[in-house]
Design a protein that fits this description.
Elements (H helix, E strand, L loop, with lengths): L2 E4 L5 H14 L9 H9 L6 E7 L2 E11 L8 E9 L8 H15 L4 E4 L6 H9 L14
Parallel strand pairs: 4-5
Antiparallel strand pairs: 1-2, 2-3, 3-4
């Protein structure tokens, strides 16, 4: 049974390990994230993001990291999904779907008018998931990184 909950400061170490796995997934080295940076980003007075963790008992299966963005449409706020990641052993078990469902609920609780995210064009598994969820790509934006 997959259970989704908001990460707490007690989860910093497992988040660190998963960040290393994410780096490796995208072709980098599997080096865990810096614990101090994670604590500051997630649990300081003004956190940069919120992390949801998917668990099966004590085992963390995956995570979703999001932030609120403003303005979205007019003066609305949107929930921006920065990272959705399911650990290899837990893939194809509905974990990503459960995380996406909880993200939609979080957006509603936070008064966000929409949920937004990007996906790599060379990640067919992610693209298939989003298509299966009934979401079509938005063609009106180009992503930049400086």
């Amino acid at each position: 049974m997959v259970e989704i909950s908001k990460a707490t400061e007690a989860d910093v170490e497992v988040i660190s390990v998963i960040l290393g796995e994410i780096e490796e997934y995208y072709g980098g080295e599997n080096i865990p994230g810096d614990l101090g940076q994670i604590r500051t980003a997630l649990f300081s007075e003004q956190p940069a993001a919120t992390v949801l963790l998917a668990r099966d008992g004590e085992t963390v299966l995956g995570l979703a990291s999001y932030s609120r963005l403003w303005p979205a449409a007019g003066a609305d706020t949107s929930l921006y999904l920065k990272e959705l990641y399911v650990r290899e052993a837990a893939r194809r078990r509905g974990v990503a779907r459960a995380l996406m469902a909880e993200l939609r609920k979080a957006a509603g609780r936070l008064g966000c008018s929409r949920l937004e995210w990007t996906a790599d064009t060379d990640n067919p598994t992610a693209l298939a998931l989003y298509e299966a969820l009934g979401v079509t790509p938005h063609q009106g934006k180009i992503f930049y990184r400086a």
